[in-house]
Design the sequence.
């Protein structure tokens, strides 16, 4: 069995979006979209993993599965909240109106409806799927409010005087929007307001996540068909520095956005607050093919989200950095948990990490995975940060199927899926590289 450390991987078959990410009763809980019957997308369940420290994880099996009319064709993405010691999950239930006769795990022509459901647990592990589910927001019937089919992914939080929830939706499949709701008791929800940006920002907004940091308020969202070319995934995750008024649920969203990760492989991020009060993000790594172990889908390393002025940083979580505590000489990076390479780049320099090339071009860091991402037609092979302002210091996490390039402690990050990464590290000049691995003994 593969080790579940530093990067949480599918236990088997298929995983995608992280769900219900929360620190609860001394453990981090990460639920996730899971198809337990094969390494492909299908009728969604919620898998469940737990960790004491965000470093070492243990899969706990199924948390949610379809069990009633409103979620009979899938328990889709959502979030978690703790209230009076109980853990509450909110999620989107899907009911197909026309099932594909060739594949019961899909529908025809997107003919389905979506509702928002809630379920609770006394311990965060055991959920009564047969009798414990409650519909809190039924399928939308007013097209002026939102879309009956494409309204999903509830993110819930506690405000100053009530509970709040945001949903992603679409306006006539022309542009994405957010729907804000308020509740006094977690059971009765009232629509308050909406926010949107227009057709240039994707036709549907998935997986919204709004939160406050010490430096300001932040919106994460995953617009569908944001990009228009054929070289990259059209659906991408972006972040905005925003302003939000709780009383009116009015959100001011600027015109300019940043990608959450400039490798453009991460999607559907979700955040929570860790044991030290830091805002922490997890996201799904989109992988183009099944691994030799028969699984597909994993998650990035947890990242601390901070806003400073108009810029949003995604920093390596200190628990991850601390895990790579043993300095190793080049050629000794044989830890089962991969390794971390630390170096600075001068203009024109490059480092080749097992076939994955990282280089500096002026004030940009660039990556090329052509040699470790073979055979994918039209694949996105080259990545590049925007212009950097804080130097050219890199911390690179190297895993068998994922490389994460943290630039200037999260000023920008490039994360890429890789296949067949090699062991050799070479430099174009005399770049000093320090290598770190984890201690092999796991408590």
Sequence:
């Amino acid at each position: 069995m593969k080790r579940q450390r530093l990067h949480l991987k599918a236990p088997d078959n298929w995983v995608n979006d992280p769900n219900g990410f929360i620190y609860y009763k001394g453990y981090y809980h990460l639920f996730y979209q899971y198809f337990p019957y094969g390494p492909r997308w299908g009728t969604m369940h919620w898998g469940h993993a737990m960790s004491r420290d965000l470093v070492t994880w243990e899969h706990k099996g199924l948390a949610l599965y379809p069990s009633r009319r409103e979620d009979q064709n899938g328990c889709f993405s959502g979030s978690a909240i703790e209230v009076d010691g109980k853990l509450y999950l909110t999620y989107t239930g899907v009911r197909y109106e026309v099932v594909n006769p060739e594949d019961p795990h899909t529908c025809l022509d997107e003919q389905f409806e979506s509702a928002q459901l809630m379920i609770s647990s006394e311990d965060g592990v055991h959920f009564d799927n047969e009798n414990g589910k409650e519909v809190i927001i039924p399928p939308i019937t007013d097209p002026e409010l939102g879309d009956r089919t494409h309204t999903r992914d509830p993110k819930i939080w506690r405000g100053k005087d009530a509970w709040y929830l945001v949903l992603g939706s679409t306006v006539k499949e022309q542009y994405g929007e957010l729907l804000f709701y308020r509740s006094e008791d977690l059971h009765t929800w009232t629509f308050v307001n909406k926010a949107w940006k227009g057709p240039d920002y994707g036709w549907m907004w998935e997986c919204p996540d709004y939160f406050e940091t010490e430096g300001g308020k932040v919106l994460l969202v995953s617009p569908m068909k944001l990009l228009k070319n054929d070289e990259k995934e059209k659906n991408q995750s972006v972040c905005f520095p925003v302003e939000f008024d709780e009383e009116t649920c009015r959100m001011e969203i600027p015109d300019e956005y940043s990608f959450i990760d400039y490798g453009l492989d991460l999607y559907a991020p979700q955040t929570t607050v860790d044991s030290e009060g830091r805002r922490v993000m997890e996201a799904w790594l989109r992988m183009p093919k099944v691994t030799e172990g028969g699984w597909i889908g994993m998650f990035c390393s947890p990242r601390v989200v901070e806003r400073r002025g108009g810029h949003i940083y995604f920093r390596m979580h200190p628990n991850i950095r601390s895990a790579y505590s043993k300095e190793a000489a080049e050629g000794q990076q044989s830890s089962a948990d991969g390794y971390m390479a630390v170096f600075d780049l001068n203009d024109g320099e490059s480092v080749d990490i097992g076939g994955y090339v990282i280089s500096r071009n002026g004030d940009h860091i660039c990556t090329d995975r052509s040699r470790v991402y073979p055979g994918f037609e039209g694949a996105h092979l080259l990545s590049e940060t925007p212009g950097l302002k804080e130097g050219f210091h890199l911390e690179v996490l190297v895993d068998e199927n994922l490389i994460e390039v943290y630039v200037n402690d999260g000023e920008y990050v490039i994360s890429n899926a890789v296949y067949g990464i090699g062991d050799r590290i070479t430099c174009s000049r005399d770049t000093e590289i320090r290598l770190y691995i984890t201690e092999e003994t796991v408590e």
